[in-house]
Design a protein that fits this description.
The complex is a heterodimer of chains A (about 575) and B (about 575). By secondary structure, chain A is of the alpha/beta class. In chain A, about 50% of the residues are buried. In chain A, a hairpin with a 2-residue loop joins strand 10 (about 545-550) and strand 11 (about 555-560). In chain A, about 65% of the residues lie in helices and about 10% in strands. Chain A has a domain at about 1-320: ABC transporter transmembrane region fold, CATH 1.20.1560.10. In chain A, the strands form 2 sheets. Chain A has a 6-stranded mixed beta sheet, with helices on both faces. Chain A has 20 helices and 11 strands. Chain B has about 575 residues and is of the alpha/beta class. Chain B has 3 domains: about 1-145 and about 295-320, ABC transporter transmembrane region fold (Up-down Bundle), CATH 1.20.1560.10; about 160-270; about 335-575, Rossmann fold (3-Layer(aba) Sandwich), CATH 3.40.50.300. Chain B is built from 20 helices and 13 strands. Chain B has helices at about 1-10, 15-50, 60-105, 105-110, 115-155, 160-205, 210-215, 215-270, 275-295, 300-315, 375-385, 405-410, 425-430, 440-450, 455-460, 475-490, 505-520, 530-535, 555-560, 565-575, and strands at about 335-345, 350-360, 365-370, 390-395, 400, 415, 425, 465, 495-500, 525-530, 540-545, 550-555, 575-579. In chain B, the strands form 3 sheets. A 6-stranded mixed beta sheet of chain B has the order 6-9-10-3-11-12, with helices on both faces. The two termini of chain B are about 65 Å apart. In chain B, about 45% of the residues are buried. The chains are: A alpha/beta (about 575), B alpha/beta (about 575). Chains A and B meet through helix 2, helix 4, helix 5, helix 7 and helix 8 of A and helix 2, helix 3, helix 5, helix 6 and helix 7 of B. Strand 9 of chain A pairs parallel with strand 13 (about 575-580) of chain B.
Chain lengths: ~575, ~575
Amino acid sequence: MRDLMRLLRLYAPYRRWIFGAIGLGLVTVLANFGLLALSGWFLASAGLVGLAGYAAQNAFNFYAPAAGVRFFATVRVLARYGGRLADHEATLRLLAKLRVAVYARLEPLAPAALSEDRSGELLSRLVADVDRLGDFFLRVISPFAVAGLGSVVMVLVFATFSPVAAVALMLGLSLAGVAVPLTSLLLGQQHSRRVTNIQDSIRSDLVDSVQGMTELLIYDASQTMINQVHGQSQDLTTVQGSLARVAGFGAALNLLASGMTVTSILVIGAVLVMAHRLAGPDSALLALGAMAAFEAVSPLPAAFQNLGGIRESARRVFELTDRAALVREPEVSPRKPTHLDLRLSDVRLRYPGQAGWALDGLNLVMEPGEHISILGRSGAGKTSLVYLLLRFADYQQGSATIGGIELRDIRGDDLRSLFTVVSERTQIFAGSIRHNLLIAKPDANEAELWQALQMAQLSVFVRQQPDGLDTLLGEAGAKISGGEARRISLARAALRQTPFLILDEPTEGLDPATASNFGTALASIASSRTVITITHRLENIHDADRVAVLRAGRIIEDGRFGVLRAAGGPVSHLAKLQEKLVHV
Amino acid sequence: MTGSIERRLIAAGSATRKSLATAIVLGFSGGMATIVQAVLLARIVTAVVFYHTPWTSLSHDVIALVGVFFLRSVLTYGAEVAAYHAAAAAKVSLRKSLLQHVFSLGPAYLANERSGELAASLLDGIETLEPFLARYLPQMALVVMLPMAILAVVFRLDLISGLVLLVSGPIIPLFMVLVGHQAEAINRRQWRKLLSMSAHFLDAVQGITTLKLFGRVRDEIELIMRISDDYRRTTMASLRVAFLTSAVLEFFASLSIALAAVLFGARLIHGDIGFFSAFLVLLLVPEFFLPLRALATHYHARMSALAAAQRIFEVLDAEGPMRWGKALPPPGPLSIVCDSISIEYRKGAYAVRDVNVVFPPGSVTAIVGRTGAGKSSLVAAILGFVAPSAGRLLIGNIVPLTTVDRDAWWRLIAYVPQSPRLFAGTLAENLRLARRDADVTTIRSALARARLLDDVDAMPSGIETIIGTGGSGLSAGQIQRLALARAFLKDAPILILDEATAHLDLETEAEIVETIAELARGRTSIMIAHRLATVRRSDRILVLDGGRIVESGNHSALMAQGGAYTRLLIKSRATACAT
């Protein structure tokens, strides 16, 4: 419930749209009620007048109720049309606001606080959840508000004729609008959860089937997998059958509730008319009015269903956005240092909730313009070192400075403006090549873009494309190869003349020939910058190059490759392996 | 186009025609009961208003009315359950045949499909068919039947109102078609826009780290705002038209009620018609429009069902790449012969061109070459996932692969890919994929030969340790070893390795190379590789370039030749250690 209140607070700026939409919804419901109730009264009155003779016919004001009927009919159509438009306008405005709000909250969390889950799934689920939260107004608030307010008005109208009938109507409406939907929701809750679970498990089996298809076929397990999915699919259908029965039960009860209410109001009317406490036509008004009243609460069962799902989505979204950022930012940065040397001494870094140090007394000194390759197996602390430098994670002990200023005293954005990262994980965005390059330097002109492409050895490729720089790359760069994607990130690096360059496994996943060409392109961009290359291979490393070996969060060897190769330590071990495993 | 998809979809649901008929019958009976209910209501109101009948003498009608409400409740319940049954069987059988078909299409088909999208269309797509089969179709029948029945009753009561309904009835669908036609086009365009907007947000969310690195998050927020605003404006413009469809319906429904009330009012005053008939018609008019309104609410369901059905039928209509026969492959160690094989994925775009090569029984062949040289395509053809556009594959020198029984062929092959898939379940279950009946001793010995046994024994539940989708909890090296253990367990005469060490770091790879060599010994082995260590030991090396074999021979012969192989080697050695 608290999550939903938070959600509501986000709606404050769009108060006018929301009240407008609810108001129009209310008018629609009441016009419908008025149309039927007045029509019933009008017919009954006219019938009585017809029996009463000429004098009465002349005395009867025919035009006022006839005009009322036409008025309600027109208002119903217009209000419904306007109400639906207002509903959607409000929904779309809210969705935009929600997206922006959530996105802004994600920024300080990325990437370290988001990475503990399998990230693709986490983030795509987030997008679906935010979409669902956008429906909160349309599918929950609006139906509840309209039904609730409408019911109050209709019950009050009834009360002016007969308090007893009003009470009957109130009971009937709350039964059909609240009690029955809540009951079926509770009855169906267990089944709904089972449906979600089975669907999740089918989905994961399907992903297994699709991604592991070759192995399933070769190992003759495809039929087993098909049968497994089929079995789950049958289970799913069985549970959905139980849900359908619950829904049918709810619908039946609802109908019964409205039927019983209408019947009892008829009886009440009959009794009151007999006792001359109610005019005959008024009893017709009450009967038809009661029937129309139940239309107002008919969207509530669906609204209750949606409420559960949206609460679940809200919980997940807020759980994510409420995570603590790993880094606290200072308000302002000190002035930019002139001599950009990097000094890490006895740095220890630990992630929240983890027992061990990810960086455990790391020492590293780099003078401006120096290049280093840091070697390490997975889990040695390579990613943590990059996170440390980019302020994606905070260090708890030791000192880390650039130009003599502690990293934690510099604002993250200012610090990161000194770095460019090229890695396998660099995102290529849907959109054009130009769009992807301008991310690195929004004000770059055409000549700069081409020069960057040239340095990344991509200009020939781009020139070959019919649309040139405006070639679309597809979702996550689906339309280009891994090597081309890597070069786009290299061209970005060329555009962004930062003093530091971090190459995080820059040739990972590329075939040897492509990797070697990529290495050549890299060299021209790397010159005159401080370059930190993170790698687990020795390709492209020369004798005069500086290498360091990272193991268990600290640097255990650091020096010239040629010297270390002969020294009999970790580097010479790696060099021997490399010789044996050389690429073909 | 839409029409034919709709017909196919209806045909797909035909297995449950009985339930559909039941749903329609129950829906129709419910409508009939509503007419009876209206008659009873009109009688009671007439009695109360005009005859001041005490309610005790109305008790028969009141009890009948209560009875009708009960009947309608039961019918509603029945219709709901029948509607569920109308879709349930169709969904289950569609899902099964779709998955079966995807498997028969094989991995070559999937290479062009985003796997996530395919999984989604299998699951969510089939679920979206439900509202169409269970709601829209029965409603389609009711939308004709119920108004006709009501019209018949109204005509008996009053000619004029009957004529009003008769005229406005068919006009509505006509108007709806006119307005709806335009609305549907707009709707579809909007739908695509919505998808692309969601895709943009997903893109931005997934790329947030990259944007943060470039200090561009704030700009992105503005962009999201702008795109959403844009979308809102165009959507609202089109909704203004789209909502006209339902406004037309509302208009006629309201108009008919108002018309009936006003006309009847005038006639009642002059005593031209009895109150009972007038009131009954007033009660029936909304019911006349109700089925149409219900149909309109399922209209979106129809659209998304048809969109999903189109995707589903596209997959079902795709043809599998290979024809297979019934012949059993010859026994014993097998040779594989590629006889002038070419593979084209599109006409004229050759992945493999005119390859002649023999893989002798029990020998190890390495295939090397750059990305796009045709290595994977050649192997896919041998596995039977891609059909050569020209030439033949022969098994044991004589039997064409196209005459061989598919499953019998795959039983002879063990396969280790670059990124082996681990399936949700225990380690043992993942290994038993290769041999169903393997006992613990056999599994442990396979693990030992893959040098994974110590790691597994160190895990808390040993071979019963549960490993998740994607193999979470295991390192890349362990996953690769598990795949090798699978191959050991299968003990097949043919072994195919597709870049089995490409993702590993130096030390892990060095540890695995020996295991691979041991696995390959004595089998007809084909390995796509780019490591000297793997390649040097093989009996023969094929160098592929542009889909052709440019060189073949063992390591020393090729080195002596000084051709393409030497160039590949020198280039990578040069970049590896410039000593």
